Amino acid sequence: MTTFTAEYTAVKTRIAATLAGLGWKVAAARDMEISCLIARMDYETVVGDKTATISLEPWSESLMLVSNYDSEGRNILSANMKRFDPAMTDESLTEAVTLYVASLEKDVNSSYARRIHLNHPQTA
């Protein structure tokens, strides 16, 4: 099991608070403790709900925010990464996370199944 530093845990908690404010579902406490996962968001698509996740990975010289959303047979968010400095002010962190999520959502909304759903919503 990976042991996370106090610094990592503190940044992860701050990011989770920002994501919760943006409507993301923050991972359960145990998941936050034992994995890199921070939060998830479900998106309606023409083929049903699909989930995007955001995680904080401890890299050798920084902390990296990464995301995943499988569409068209691949993770369309694989290039969405943001390096975080643990010394960031709360204001800077909130701004960085908000911009990251906006970019992520633009990519998700451009995916094939999501784009069809947004342009031709189905009623139940």
Total helices: the number is 4
List the helices and strands in order.
HEHEEEEEEHH
Largest sheet: 5 strands, antiparallel
Report strand order across the widest sheet: 1-2-3-4-7
Low-confidence stretches: none
Structural class: alpha+beta
The rough form would be described as elongated
Q: Span between N and C termini?
A: 44 Å
User: How many domains is the backbone divided into?
Assistant: 1
Explain this structure.
There is one protein chain. By secondary structure, the chain is α+β, with helices and mostly antiparallel strands. It has one domain. It has helices spanning 6-21, 29-34, 90-109, 112-119, and strands at 25-26, 37-43, 50-58, 63-68, 70-71, 74-75, 81-84. The chain has a five-stranded antiparallel beta sheet, with helices on one face. β2 and β3 (50-58) form a beta hairpin. α1 packs across α3 (90-109).
Would you kindly provide a brief summary of this structure?
The protein is 40% helix and 26% strand.
How are the SSEs ordered, and which strands pair?
Blueprint: H1 6-21, E1 25-26, H2 29-34, E2 37-43, E3 50-58, E4 63-68, E5 70-71, E6 74-75, E7 81-84, H3 90-109, H4 112-119
Antiparallel strand pairs: 1-2, 2-3, 3-4, 4-7, 5-6
